[in-house]
Amino acid sequence: MSTQKRDYLPFNLTFYTKQFLPLWNDILNGNIRPVKKLLSQTSHFSRWPYIGYPRLMSTFDFHYFIDFHSFYDRRFQSFLHHYPFLPPTSEIADLWGLFDPLFSLIETTEDVASLPGLDILHHSLFYTLCCALGPGEDVFLRLRDNVHIVRRHHFVLIGDDEISPWYEYIKHPDRIPGHWELFYSSMQAFPHDLANVLPSHLMKTLEHSTTLLQENGVNWFYPFEKINVFSKSDLSAPLLFLHGVFELCIRDALKGGLPFNFQLVTCQEDIDTTSNLLDYFLYDQLTTFKEENTMIIHSELLRQYPERMSLCLKQQEDAFLELRNRLLRRILFAAQNEWALLFLSC
Q: Which residues sit opposite 152 in a β-bridge?
């Protein structure tokens, strides 16, 4: 089952315009010397939604990285099928070494844009060179004999479960006008007016890069001017009551099922309540069948299980506030560096 994702990433638009696009233009023309030189000075590897990996890591973590990406990403799996790599023979593995077979083909192919897997290279370069998370969100690392050991992945800021409460929060009618509402409405289509500031020989390169990014969910961004305003605004609006957060609380509270008096709700004949246990699947059936069941179940759970409900609600509210605070830190990081902010939706 597919899931939706939303993410906000600090984005160095100036670097993208002045250095990344010329670099990608060289690659499309078969010249890999500039990118090889730049990568020799790069200490990390990024490919959304995994940002800020060390390029050099233990062979165990290297193989875990490969297996993990291959399992969850068919495009990456296809890339490895087209460009088999030699397993590292030392204790240290280099993630950028995955692209050595592709680099060799780029130098000898006339139509580089038609090479399979070029999108994987583009996105890896783009997120490595043009994006960052800022302080406090680095991949957790430890060193053993000077080898990086990776023990945590960065996942998207807003996953499938958080999308509904997030939009409920930033578009809530009780919010102070001009803050989160302005943030929500201030996105610009990517790449907006970049074509107006690029030399003519990079126009096709911009089009090619933009197409690849849009396929990866990059359609919108906030320019630095907007981010600079947001970084100086009070975006720490109180949580108030969010139906989406409460629904996540219900889901957590009902794990394993809870004894419940089903005579209080209206049931359809094909809804099986013989277990006398309310789990989230049954809750979804009952509330979908009759909307009035929602408030009845909410009230009864709060009455019967106040401590459990209070604990689950606090955990969900804390997690949601941390999500918001991570975004606020990214906005501040982007503003301090005069960067833009990408919005990814896929």
A: none
| Token code pair at residue 120 | 């994987």
ω into residue 54 within 30 of 0, thus cis? no
> What mean pLDDT comes out for the span 244-271?
90
Beta bridge partners of 126: none
Torsion 251-253-254-256 (CA) sign: positive
What tokens appear for 304 in the block? Answer: 């019967």
Helices (H), 47-202: 59-72, 74-82, 100-108, 118-130, 160-170, 180-185
Q: In this predicted model, what pLDDT tens digit does every residue of 315-342 receive, in sequence order?
A: 988 888 888 888 888 999 999 999 999 9
Q: What is the Cα Rg of the chain in Å?
A: 24
Contact 96, 113 (CB under 8 A): no
CA atoms within 13 A on the CB side of 163: 11
User: What does the pLDDT look like over 117-153, one tens digit per residue?
Assistant: 999 999 999 999 999 987 777 554 444 555 545 444 4
- DSSP per-residue string spanning 163-196: HHHHHHHHT-TTSPTTSHHHHHH--EETTTTGGG
* Contact predicate 129/44, CB 8 Å: no
CB 171 within 8 A of CB 85: no
| Model pTM score | 0.85
